Amino acid sequence: MAARNAPESSSSSLIDELGRCCYQRDLPGAIRIMDAMERHGVRADSIMYSELIKCCLARGGVEQGKLVHKHVFSNGYQPTMFLINILINMYVKFDLLDEAWKLFDQMRERNVVSWTTMISAYCNAKLNERALKFLVLMLREGVRPNMFTYSSILRACAGLWNLRQLHCSITKAGLESDVFVRSALIDSYSKMGELQNALSVFNEMVTGDLVVWNSIIGGFAQNSDGDEALNLFKSMKRAGFPSHQATLTSVLRACTGLSLLELGRQVHVHVLKFDQDLILNNALLDMYCKCGSVADANTIFTRMLEKDVISWSTMIAGLAQNGFSQEALRLFESMKLSGMKPNYVTIVGVLFACSHAGLVEDGWYYFRSMKQLFGIDPGREHYGCIIDLLGRAGKLDEAVRLIHGMKSEPDAITWRTLLGACRVHRHVDLAIYAAKRILELDPQDSGTYILLSNIYAKSQKWEDVEEIRRAMKTRGIKKEPGCSWIEVNKQIYAFIIGDNSNPQMDKITKYLNHLIQRLMEVGYFPDTNFVLQDLEGEQGEDSLRYHSEKLAIAFGMMSFSKEKTVRIWKNIRICGDCHVFAKLLAKKENRIIVIRDPIRYHHFQDGICSCGDYW
DNA sequence: CTAGGGTTAG
To answer: Where are the PPR repeats (predicted)?
Structure first.
């Protein structure tokens, strides 16, 4: 308004007026004054232009930003490097990388800020290769990267670049102590799974910094080392840092990985003060689902004001994994009604629910129509669900045909799914075939070697047994011992097959024998006959009688009152005999037993298991 | 004028 009232004002008053408009974030007013300035051939200084650009950014004025750009360069004027950098940054913030690049390309001279702005923009756009190319060009032009450059580029280099080499340059430049660089380094090492390197960067820190702590805790949590993540969290608290959303999210993820429901509940209390944080709520949902407490998850889900596709997907998969397939599918319907668009992961959960409930028709329907309905191409995980579905229905040949016709190459998990179907239908020949495919793709999978060797031993093919042993030896494969854990009085007890170090072991074994005795009265008989029942090969060294999960269950029942759910988790998959044992025990003793293996949950109640005897 | 940390499947 002011500009229109004072069309012939002097150059200095125009600039004063421009300053006022910028300060008040009056973008239309500022642009009008800029027009007037252009007519009068008046220019502002770089600082004033930068204020004007800030105003454009604050108001989302892309077009106005372009006008400013034109004005700055009008009459053949060559703006300062400082000002061009700001213009480049403006285009980056507006997501117009091509415009930013054009400006950058035309610069006569570029400093570290110009380069870093572009590199950071490419990193954010996940154009990692291009970001790295720019780093090389920058070095070639003799511009030295600073801490801003390194903390940006580090996010792009995971997997693409020699991280250690970059780390060396950082150290040489004396930039390692910068907290931004440090957290980026930790993050990059974590993303490449090099936790020891991440930890040594972390340990060199003297000053302490919230984000650096979050980086290292997140690193361990994401690499499924929940123990270390939780230890670090304790140290962080001891060092006096307050819990931040990102910290708690990682801590919850650690609880999820370790199935620590009780600790998860305690963390929940701290989450309450951030009750609007979407990511944190999603992590909480997942924790309750994966720790087998669907009721708690449901409560959280219902109370969440804001839900995104991850919230829905987590809840759908969580219901399905816990055996509530119908509820999962109903929730999927509500999701569609709510207008939320499902993604790749959502459909995995939906198909999982179908296969779990034996809903062959629905499963095929979603699988065949996911592309048209939701624009999602079926991937390995989707195929896996359908293989599972066919396997359950006993259509093993069809499952094999599906695998051979897959658009994405089958991986070890695909073949393991088929192997699971072979176990249920006692199809030994196909099991051997699947096991061989697994070992081609995952030569480190000790369980599959044991399984194959057990199959061969059973049919007295000793030469084949010998061959497997040799292969294991040359490849340095050690059998992973079966191990089960249980939390009693905030203490974690581990039961490892063949390990009797628990001081109460005598009592526990005695009690377990007593339980087995009672079950045998109602028809239980330990089934050692069929090798395929033990997919991961816990048997062999010791009798089935003392499989780690049986000991853990016995210990849990000794320690808890009848109402308390006995929650066990174990490192390898549950064997068929232990599965029968747990089902009968749950009924006979009127208990709820929950066992979590590396891939799924088994809820034993009333003589049945949520997995429907298929895993 | 340029920079760092968190959530879903298998």
So the answer is: 80-110, 111-145, 178-208, 209-243, 277-307, 308-342, 445-479
Question: Rounded to an integer, what distance in angstroms lies between the CA atom of residue A446 and that of residue A476?
Answer: 10
Q: Mark residues 154-213 of chain A whose C-beta is closer than 7 A to nucleic acid strand B.
A: 155, 178-184, 187, 209-212
Q: Is residue A138 exposed (0-12), middle (13-18) or buried (19+ Cβ within 10 Å)?
A: buried
Tokens of A203: 């340990």
Contact A560, A566 (CB under 8 A): yes
pLDDT bin (cut points 50, 70, 90) of residue A1 is very low
CA atom of A181 to C1′ atom of B10, Å = 33
In tens, the pLDDT along A566-578 reads 888 888 778 777 8
Nearest to A81 by CA among A48, A117, A108, A53: A108
Given a contact cutoff of 8 angstroms between Cβ atoms, the answer to whether A213 and A247 are in contact is yes
Q: How far apart are CA A458 and CA A432, in angstroms?
A: 13
| pLDDT tens per residue across span A191-218 | 999 999 999 999 999 989 999 999 999 9
Q: What is the DSSP pairing of strand A608-609 with strand A593-596?
A: unpaired
Contact by Cβ (8 Å): A268, A297:
no
Q: What sign results for the dihedral spanned by CA atoms A359, A363, A366, A368?
A: negative
Alpha helices of A60-162 — where are they, by DSSP H?
62-72, 81-93, 97-106, 112-124, 128-140, 147-157
Residues A150, A122: Cα–Cα separation, whole Å: 13
Domain ranges of chain A: 1-101, 483-609
Q: Evaluate if the CB of A560 falls below 7 Å from strand B.
A: no
The amino acid at A373: L
C-alpha distances out from residue A263 to A183, A282, A489, A600, Å: 27, 17, 11, 21
Angle of helix A548-559 relative to helix A505-521, nearest 10 degrees? 100
Tokens read off for A39: 């007519």
